[in-house]
């Protein structure tokens, strides 16, 4: 069964004021340390009950005043769960361990080098996927996102990638920008983005789309018209005041399964699979020049079917990237969206599959690489 659509925003950033508890940090952590002194588990449970009532009281002493700066913010549900976990402990020793962990979450932020995920609060990131099977039952169609561009990916893909592999302010580059899904997500998440699109008409429409997405975080969101196989990223980055990029998201045409333009430089118009892969390799090479070492590149690619044969384009593309000094970190399988065009042909494809002895594509890949 398909999972429900992910929450479009991270819980702490998108929570309504009712979901978020702004607590006065020092009084809150002092209250936790006082619980340490409980003489028995029963006393501790009674004290936790009282603590929750103080937390829950909008006028209570543990709530931060509007002008307070020593503040810690929790999602209401997660904090309740954390207190319940402490109350469920069978020994004081275990309960103290959980109390310390909660106090640490209030006092310290522990992030890694490549994202803003606070590892002291890792349970709060319900929205971040860590499994290799991504099932989305519908695309995120909020704001400027729309499904009108045939061949765009679901916004959840760049969302997941940026949340895992970038910090706020990191530069994300997309050499196959299309309708600008990556750029819209970057704008929302506070990640500057530069996209390149070959087709000037698509780029023009994308600029109109981008203008419809509120620019709340004031980050760069640039779209260049160009051929990514020869594109000069270094000069472009310099022009925008950047020295390097921290994430590259590549969503090329799946060779010729969708015709994007008449332009011979279009990867969809490569005369053979080998030519397609050579062009993909050229794009990877260009991008790699500006990607920081230790940072990530994601390739979103699906397979194709031709002359009675399943062509594993995804894995061939993966091999191509591996030739450019990357290590493979993950292969994610994502369910394939039914586009409007395909839906009408669904029955026909089922018939063809039964006759031809093959299976109808329902998945594509997201290959995740780290630059050595
Ligand atoms: C699969 S679509 C990308 C869709 C995009 N991820 C989105 O969500 O809208 C591939 C895009 O790459 C563009 N493209 C193909 N060859 C290119 C090239 N050599 N340089 C730059 N863009 C190219 C196509 O015009 C098309 O818009």
Defining traits:
18% strand; two-stranded antiparallel sheet; alpha/beta; 2 domains
Count the strands? 12
SSE order, one letter for each helix or strand: HEHHEHHEHEHEHEHEHEEEHEHE
Distinct ligands, ions and cofactors found in the model: S-adenosylmethionine
Q: Which strand-content bin applies to the residues?
A: 15-25%
**What is Rg?**
24 Å
Oligomer: single chain
Physical arrangement of strands within the biggest beta sheet: 3-11-12-8-7-4-5-6
Q: Give the low-confidence spans.
A: 1-15
CATH fold naming of the largest domain: Rossmann fold
> Largest sheet, described in full?
8 strands, mixed
| Fourth-level CATH superfamily of the largest domain | Vaccinia Virus protein VP39
| Count of DSSP-assigned helices | 12
Total number of domains:
2
Terminus-to-terminus distance: 38 Å
Outline, from the CA principal axes?
A: elongated
Structural class: alpha/beta
Task: Annotate the secondary structure layout.
Layout: H1 11-14, E1 20-24, H2 25-36, H3 41-56, E2 71-75, H4 76-88, H5 92-107, E3 133-134, H6 156-165, E4 172-174, H7 181-189, E5 193-197, H8 200-211, E6 221-225, H9 233-239, E7 245-250, H10 273-288, E8 291-301, E9 304-306, E10 309-311, H11 313-322, E11 326-335, H12 340-356, E12 363-371
Parallel strand pairs: 3-11, 4-5, 4-7, 5-6, 7-8
Antiparallel strand pairs: 1-2, 8-12, 9-10, 11-12
The structure holds S-adenosylmethionine.
């Amino acid at each position: 069964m398909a999972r429900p659509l992910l929450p479009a925003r991270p819980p702490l950033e998108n929570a309504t004021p009712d979901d978020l508890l702004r607590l006065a940090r020092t009084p809150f952590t002092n209250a936790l340390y006082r619980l340490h002194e409980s003489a028995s588990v029963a006393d501790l449970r009674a004290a936790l009950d009282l603590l929750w009532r103080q937390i829950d009281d909008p006028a209570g002493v543990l709530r931060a005043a509007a002008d307070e700066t020593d503040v810690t913010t929790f999602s209401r549900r997660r904090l309740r769960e954390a207190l319940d976990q402490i109350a469920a402990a069978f020994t004081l020793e275990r309960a103290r361990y959980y109390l310390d962990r909660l106090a640490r979450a209030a006092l310290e932020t522990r992030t890694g080098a490549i994202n803003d995920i606070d590892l002291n609060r890792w349970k709060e990131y319900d929205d971040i996927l860590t499994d290799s099977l991504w099932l989305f039952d519908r695309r995120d169609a909020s704001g400027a996102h729309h499904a009108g561009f045939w061949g765009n990916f679901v916004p959840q893909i760049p969302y997941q990638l940026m949340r895992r592999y970038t910090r706020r302010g990191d530069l994300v580059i997309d050499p196959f920008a299309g309708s600008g899904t990556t750029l819209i997500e970057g704008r929302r998440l506070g990640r500057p983005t530069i996209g390149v699109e070959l087709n000037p008409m698509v780029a023009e429409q994308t600029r109109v789309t981008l203008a419809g997405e509120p620019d709340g975080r004031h980050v760069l969101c640039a779209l260049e018209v160009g051929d990514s196989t020869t594109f000069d990223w270094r000069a472009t980055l310099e022009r925008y005041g950047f020295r390097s990029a921290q994430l590259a998201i590549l969503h090329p045409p799946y060779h010729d399964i969708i015709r994007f333009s008449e332009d011979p430089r279009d990867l969809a118009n490569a005369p053979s699979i080998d030519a397609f892969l050579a062009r993909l390799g050229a794009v990877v090479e260009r991008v790699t020049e500006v990607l920081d070492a230790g940072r990530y590149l994601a390739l979103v690619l699906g397979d194709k079917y031709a002359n009675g044969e399943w062509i594993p384009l995804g894995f061939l593309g993966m091999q191509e990237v591996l030739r450019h000094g990357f290590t493979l970190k993950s292969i994610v399988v994502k369910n394939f969206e039914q586009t409007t065009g395909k839906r009408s042909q669904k029955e026909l494809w089922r018939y063809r599959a039964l006759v031809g002895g093959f299976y109808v594509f329902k998945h594509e890949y997201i290959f995740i690489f780290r630059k050595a």
